[in-house]
TrEMBL record:
Belongs to the flavoredoxin family. Keywords: Flavoprotein. Gene3D superfamilies: Electron Transport, Fmn-binding Protein, Chain A. The keyword Flavoprotein applies. One of its GO terms (molecular function) is FMN binding. It comes from Acetobacterium paludosum. Pfam families: Flavin_Reduct. Its cofactor is FMN. The keyword Transcription does not apply. This is Flavin reductase family protein. Residues 12-164 form the Flavin reductase like domain.
C-alpha cells in the first residue's frame, strides 16, 4: 500500500541545466536550474522555471532570450557552484574558469566547455506561484563533435549529463540503456 507524503516536487529526475543570460552592460551570467524540460515538439521548445529574485529572471525578461548549456557529469562541481551564488554578487565565469560564448542567434551567452547547447528565443511566460515558467523556442542546438554519433546526433552516453533528485537533493549520473523507445513496449500492442 502506498503512503501519502504530501504535495512535493518529487518528480524524478530533473535535468541539470545551466541557463545563460546577459545582465546589465552585457555581462554574461549563468545559473543552474533543475525545473525544466521539453514542452513542445513543433516548434521545438523547452521550459525552465525561475524565481523572480534571480538575476537570470530579469535578464530573460529584458533580452527575450536564454541558452541552456547541458553539463557533463565531469562538470558537476562547476554546475553546482553556478547554482549556489547569485550573478548579482559574483562573476561565475571567472570563478569557475568556464568560458562565455556569445550566441550568434539569440541575445544570450552559453558555456563553451559544456557539450550540448540549446539556444532559445523567449516565446511565452507563465506565472506559477513563486516561479515564472519561461518557454523558449529552440532556434539551434550546438554540440561538441565528440558527443555525436555516426548520424551527427548527440548521444546520452557521450554527453553524460547528470540529473537532480529533489527528494534527497542529490546529483546522479545516468545509467544503462534499457531498450529502444517506442519499441520495447510493443509486446503489449494488440495485433
Amino acid at each position: 500500500m502506498k503512503k501519502s507524503i504530501g504535495a512535493k516536487t518529487f518528480a524524478m529526475p530533473s535535468p541539470v541545466w545551466v541557463v545563460g543570460t546577459y545582465g546589465e552592460n552585457s555581462v554574461p551570467n549563468i545559473m543552474t536550474a533543475a525545473w525544466g524540460g521539453i514542452c513542445c515538439s513543433v516548434p521545438p521548445c523547452v521550459t525552465v522555471s525561475l524565481q523572480k529574485p534571480r538575476a537570470s529572471y530579469d535578464n530573460i525578461m529584458k533580452r527575450k532570450a536564454f541558452t541552456i548549456s547541458i553539463p557533463s557529469s565531469k562538470q558537476a562541481v562547476e554546475a553546482d557552484y553556478v547554482g549556489i551564488v547569485s550573478g548579482k554578487n559574483a562573476d561565475k565565469f571567472a570563478v569557475t574558469g568556464l568560458t562565455p560564448v556569445k550566441s550568434e542567434l539569440v541575445d544570450a551567452p552559453y558555456v563553451g566547455e559544456f557539450p550540448l547547447i540549446l539556444e532559445c528565443r523567449l516565446v511565452q511566460t507563465v506565472e506559477l506561484g513563486i516561479h515564472t515558467q519561461f518557454i523558449g523556442e529552440i532556434v539551434d542546438v550546438k554540440a561538441d563533435s565528440d558527443v555525436l554519433d555516426e548520424k551527427g546526433i548527440p548521444t546520452l552516453q557521450k554527453v553524460s549529463p547528470f540529473v537532480f533528485s529533489a527528494s534527497d537533493k542529490g546529483y546522479y549520473q545516468m545509467g544503462d540503456k534499457l531498450g529502444e523507445a517506442f519499441s520495447i513496449g510493443m509486446k503489449f500492442k494488440v495485433k
